[in-house]
Design brief:
With about 425 residues, the chain is mainly α. The chain contains 22 helices and no strands.
Length: about 425
């Protein structure tokens, strides 16, 4: 033990041990900052909507019922109370006996002809429009449809959660709260450990000397701690971390100026692409008629909406907004989501019709969006990266035959957009 103390005392006489630790601490703090500064920023991810809960009280396969409802019933009926071509089906299994519902679904017209009071009431209330008969549906399948209807009405929170996820995705990229907290905690821990080690080293070196220096100086633990905290190396490291943090935040902010990734504004009419393009598989070209022949994809006019909604969901409050627009000769004031600056030229027809680019390439999985948002950054770098990696759609286009041949002879691989002027400034800026 005496040998260890003598060795430590001999080290204390040299300046290396007491100056080495603060210097290491300074370097360590800067390295910690650089590591965390280059850690990928946590981003909000699309969350799946909560799974549908089982329909209480009804013995039926909800999944099977959902598929049957959407393929056979959804064109005329809503799962809630909203009237469409037919009545809303919420609690329909409570309003009518199950066997009555089976007969009605199998052949409603025969029940009307037989003078069934409930059947006549529905028939007269909905303009004497006969309901389509579904004689092939089994009782188990009908139970599944009823179970799905009840399940859909028991989950208002699920729809709200879906909207919240879509709205949350609109947040622009930035450091998460957890990231910031972890960074601050780590820096504080490193600083405190360095200070404590400095104090312990100081106390041990003085105790080996018989405590004479401690008695002379009369310094308390608190004063030693304060002196260690004021050490030039510690102060320098803290200042550097602060400066680097400010520089990083400034640069991140500068690079994100004008970038609207995640932007999902509230529209004047709650139009669901998830329902129309996803579930009903309506082609994008049906509504956005200019995408194959003009620079702009165009926003659909109200008469396109009326091709379907002149019959379907006429009583819906959202559809009534379209009717009001037509009656007042007032266009619907849709809020633009994707908006390039005036200094950039982009042509939809060139990319979609000639290049064969799918809508999802730039706009994301639009078929799953309840609320449309800007999924891509749409920055110049993003466009250039696409031009560098995308093959030219030259199949069946004689215009490119000679160019493809020459390009192949030179051993440059497949013909990319960048090889036909895709990186020239005047292509997008003129």
């Amino acid at each position: 033990m005496n040998s260890i103390c003598r060795n430590f005392y001999s080290l204390r006489k040299r300046p290396y041990p007491t100056s080495f630790l603060p210097k290491c601490t300074s370097v360590l703090l800067v390295l910690v900052f650089l590591v965390f500064a280059n850690t990928p920023i946590l981003r909000a991810q699309d969350a799946e909507a909560p799974a549908a809960a089982a329909a209480g009280g009804l013995e039926g396969d909800v999944a099977v019922g959902e598929a049957l409802f959407k393929s056979n019933c959804s064109s005329c009926h809503e799962t809630g109370t909203t009237k469409s071509v037919g009545p809303g089906l919420k609690d329909v299994h409570k309003k009518h006996d199950f066997q009555w519902l089976v007969k009605w679904i199998h052949n409603s017209q025969s029940m009307v002809a037989a003078g069934d009071p409930a059947a006549l009431k529905i028939y007269n209330e909905f303009n004497k429009i006969p309901m389509t008969s579904f004689p092939t549906l089994s009782e188990d399948e009908i139970k599944g449809i009823l179970a799905y209807i009840e399940s859909a009405n028991n989950q208002p929170a699920a729809a709200a959660a879906t909207g919240a996820v879509a709205a949350g995705a609109a947040q622009s990229e930035g450091p998460s709260t957890l990231f910031v907290v972890l960074l601050v905690v780590l820096v504080v821990v490193v600083v405190l450990l360095s200070i404590v080690l400095l104090v312990v080293l100081n106390l041990l070196s003085r105790s080996v000397d018989g405590g004479r220096e401690v008695k002379k100086s009369g310094e308390s633990f608190g004063s030693l701690l304060g002196r260690a905290a004021r050490h030039p190396a510690i102060l320098s490291a803290t200042a550097w971390v602060f400066v680097l943090l400010v520089v990083k935040v400034t640069l991140d902010g500068a690079f994100n100026v004008g970038v609207q990734q995640g932007y999902a504004p509230k529209q004047p009419i709650a139009f669901s692409h998830k329902l129309h393009a996803g579930e009903y598989e309506i082609d994008c070209n049906y509504c956005h008629t200019g995408v194959n022949k003009s620079r702009a994809a165009t926003i659909p006019a109200a008469n396109i909406c009326m091709n379907c909604h002149g019959v379907i969901k006429r009583e819906s409050p959202e559809i009534q907004k379209i009717y009001a627009s037509i009656q007042n000769n007032q266009p619907i004031e849709w809020v633009r989501v994707h908006n390039l600056p005036d200094l950039a030229y982009f042509n939809h027809s060139q990319h979609v019709n000639v290049g064969g680019v799918e809508c999802e390439t730039c706009h994301g999985d639009i078929k799953k969006m309840e609320v449309v948002e800007q999924r891509s950054s749409l920055t110049m770098g993003w466009c250039i990266d696409c031009h560098r990696t995308t093959d030219v759609n030259a199949k069946g286009n004689a215009y490119y035959d000679k160019l493809v041949q020459v390009h192949g002879e030179e051993g440059k691989g497949t013909l990319k957009v960048a090889d036909i002027g895709g990186l020239e400034c005047s292509k997008c800026h003129y």
